[in-house]
Automatic annotation (TrEMBL):
The lineage of its organism: Eukaryota, Fungi, Dikarya, Basidiomycota, Agaricomycotina. It comes from the Eukaryota. It comes from Hermanssonia centrifuga. This is Mannan endo-1,6-alpha-mannosidase. GO terms for biological process: carbohydrate metabolic process. InterPro entries: 6-hairpin_glycosidase_sf, Glyco_hydro_76, MUG_Protein. It holds the Pfam family Glyco_hydro_76.
Length: 294
């Protein structure tokens, strides 16, 4: 395993937090920790873990580091920070330090400040801090991050309050307008919550599942599980359009084609999906796993 050398000293973390990882890299790195954790059970890579269990600096990986111009980027990284904190705690790295939890909590508070309470949607969060309408993946990630932090530490109940607020917005509030009758999530909507973007990318279906499962655990309310299962059933059973690739006409959804989950941009012989879109299915399938973030 090749080591990455460009990490800051964990005991003296960088003061500049204006940069953030791209979303794909954030959750890939998060899963790297899962692999390293398995290796750690065999005591093979403890020295590597001690070097790697720190916030990557701007020179890490391919250097493609984004500033926090999108709340969704920050939320992906916040979820990664929680994984790092849990890993450190489990393996006795930096005992007593809550540095990564604190960073994730800072991100949660920053995104919470963009909650669209006064909009026609009555909630949700935009993809960009300057946005005016809820974005689905950003709202899902905010919900997931909030619930994950609640489970880790919530001394004054603020996080639980946000978790309950987000859950209610999805299950009984206008957050339902982001979902079709099959339980499938659109990509976002306008400030009035009456004109959703009908693209239903697979990655919009995944991250909320873990948050709903965790809410069922926190509250004892199994209706959260039923709510999540509706989405899973929709992913598997959506009628879609038999002929792929589908046109960008606002009415398409991924479907099971020859046993494979497909995006609207997929095709049997060709695909118009870009690099990001090629990752989308992974996130849905990963979040069916009960260990997704929690």
């Amino acid at each position: 395993m090749e080591r990455n050398q460009d990490y800051p000293d964990q005991s003296n973390p960088p003061a500049d937090t204006s940069w953030m990882l791209p979303w794909t890299y954030s959750w890939i790195l998060e899963q790297d920790f899962g692999i390293i954790e398995i290796a750690a059970e065999m005591n093979d890579y403890q020295d590597l873990i001690e070097e790697q269990a720190v916030v990557p600096n701007k020179d890490h990986g391919d250097g493609n580091v984004l500033p926090v111009t999108g709340s969704f980027n920050a939320a992906w990284a916040g979820l990664m920070y929680i994984k790092v904190q849990q890993y450190n705690d489990a393996h006795g790295l930096n005992p007593g330090s809550t540095y990564y939890y604190d960073r994730a909590n800072d991100i949660q508070q920053g995104i919470a400040a963009t909650w669209l309470a006064s909009s026609g949607c009555g909630g949700g969060v935009p993809q960009l801090t300057s946005g005016t309408g809820p974005n689905t993946i950003t709202s899902h990630l905010f919900f997931s991050l909030t619930v994950a932090l609640t489970q880790y530490s919530d001394p004054d109940g603020t996080l639980r309050g946000w978790a309950d607020k987000a859950a209610a917005w999805y299950t009984t509030g206008k957050g339902q307008t982001l979902r079709d009758t099959d339980g499938l999530w659109f990509d976002g909507t306008n400030p009035s919550c009456d004109a959703p973007d009908h693209h239903k990318w697979t990655y919009n279906q995944g991250p909320i599942l873990s948050a709903l499962g965790a809410m069922a655990t926190l509250t004892g309310d199994t209706s959260y599980i039923d709510f999540a299962l509706t989405t899973l059933d929709g992913v598997v059973n959506s009628p879609g359009t038999p002929s792929l690739p589908q046109t960008d006409n606002g009415s398409n959804f991924p479907e099971i084609v020859n046993g494979n989950l497909a995006e609207w941009c997929d095709g049997a012989s060709s695909s118009t999906c870009n690099n990001d879109q090629q990752y989308f299915k992974v996130k849905t399938l990963f979040c069916i796993n009960p260990d997704c973030y929690f």
